Design the sequence.
């Protein structure tokens, strides 16, 4: 089984795009650190965010596993050195502690850390492309997911257009 760790940014976006089941199906299960649970579920439920309730249901179903990290010193160091939030820092630590295969994130600073530490990662746009290439999404649905992603305002227009072009030009 592939060990996949996700941070809050990707969990929330994937949930908003109604692709959480697809994410779990693709990898068997997903792990998140405690800080990501607090950010994406506890705080989200306080604001009545639908994605928080969807994520919580998958946790209760045993499809998303919440784990505590061991190396708290390294967590603080990552946060300070790279100016990342607690959830992203814990996700990186959990990735390293569990010797995971992939880290899911859409956080710009975390992506930089992944490149520096040679961490294999994926983003929501890359997951949409993967889902299309594995015939889990049609071309039209994939393009619609990119349109919705653009509406959320998380990604700039230029990269979204590049990803849409990849889908348009991809033969599956």
Sequence:
């Amino acid at each position: 089984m592939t060990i996949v760790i996700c941070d809050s940014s990707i969990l929330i976006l994937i949930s908003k795009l109604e692709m959480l089941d697809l994410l779990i199906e693709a990898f068997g299960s997903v792990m998140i650190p405690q800080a990501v649970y607090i950010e994406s579920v506890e705080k989200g439920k306080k604001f009545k965010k639908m994605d928080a309730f969807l994520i919580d249901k998958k946790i209760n179903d045993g499809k998303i596993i919440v784990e505590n990290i061991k190396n708290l010193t390294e967590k603080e160091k990552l946060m300070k050195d790279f100016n990342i939030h607690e959830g992203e820092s814990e996700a990186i630590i959990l990735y390293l502690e569990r010797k995971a295969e992939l880290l899911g994130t859409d956080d710009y600073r975390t992506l930089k850390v992944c490149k520096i530490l040679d961490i294999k990662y994926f983003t929501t746009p890359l997951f949409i492309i993967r889902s299309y290439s594995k015939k889990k999404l049609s071309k039209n649905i994939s393009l619609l997911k990119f349109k919705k992603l653009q509406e959320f305002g998380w990604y700039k227009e230029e990269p979204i257009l590049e990803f849409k072009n990849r889908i348009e030009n991809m033969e599956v």
Remarks:
- Residues 126-169 form one domain.
- The two ends are 25 Å apart (CA to CA).
